[in-house]
Amino acid sequence: MKLFTKVYKFLPIFILKFFLGLFVIRCASLFKMSFIFGSYRASFAATTIAKPLIGLFSGGFISIVIFSLCLLFRYLLFGVASLHILAFYIPGLCSALYLAYDTIFVRFFLPLLCIILFVTHAIGAQAFAYSLYWLIPIVIYCVKQKNMFLNVLGSTFVAHAVGSTIWLYTIGMNASVWNALIPIVALERLSMALAIWLGYKIIVHLKKRSLTSIFVLKKTEVTV
Fold first, then answer.
1. What confidence tens digit (pLDDT) does each residue in 66-115 have?
2. How far apart are alpha carbons 172 and 38 in whole angstroms?
3. For residues 145-162, b (16+ Cβ closer than 10 Å) or e, as one string?
């Protein structure tokens, strides 16, 4: 009976967060930010900012459900696609899980695994300096800083590590291109981290204002 009561209380919140997350992802996908180097058609969308925020405020489970449904819808609409399509989905999920859970698997071992996979690849070995960016989330985890901007920065580099590794193994891109991207990555990831951090601040501010409004309304009702 207690379990049923807990599920009954949790279910409406879960459904609300789930559909809100889907709505945010759908709206964010309409806004393209910049082209992905190595592709003439693919580009970063605002979902790269929305997905980590969903993980932060809605949790990892909802992020996994949304990720699975997005892949399912794509499969139903377009059928089986090449593996590099995963580079548009899995990195966002990993960044969401990074912010949803303070776990060594996502924050330490995942970027470490990406470094190993990158430098042991024939092309990646010629651009090993590119993978040094992925030491950033590892260092942030080891330092155990609770600073939100550092957490967000770590999530962007985990997403970058996963996406780049998938791209390396599925798309033929020369080592010279990877090396040329090294200075661009710093600006790109800092910009994304700043955008996610600002999004976090705005959501927290709006939540505080809504809670304050509810409190004032209830206080007014009691007074009346």
1. 787 877 777 777 666 566 677 778 888 899 999 999 899 999 999 999 99
2. 9
3. eeeeebbbbbbbbbbbbb
Distances (CA, A) of 132 to 6, 55, 97, 216: 45, 25, 22, 51
Distance CA 76, CA 63 (A): 20
- Residue 118 CB neighbour total at 10 angstroms: 23
Structure tokens at 71: 């892949």
Whole-model pTM? Answer: 0.74
3-state DSSP call for residue 209?
helix
Q: β-strands 43-45, 32-35: how paired?
A: antiparallel
Q: How far apart are CA 29 and CA 22, in angstroms?
A: 11
CA dihedral 156, 162, 164, 169 (to 10 degrees): 180
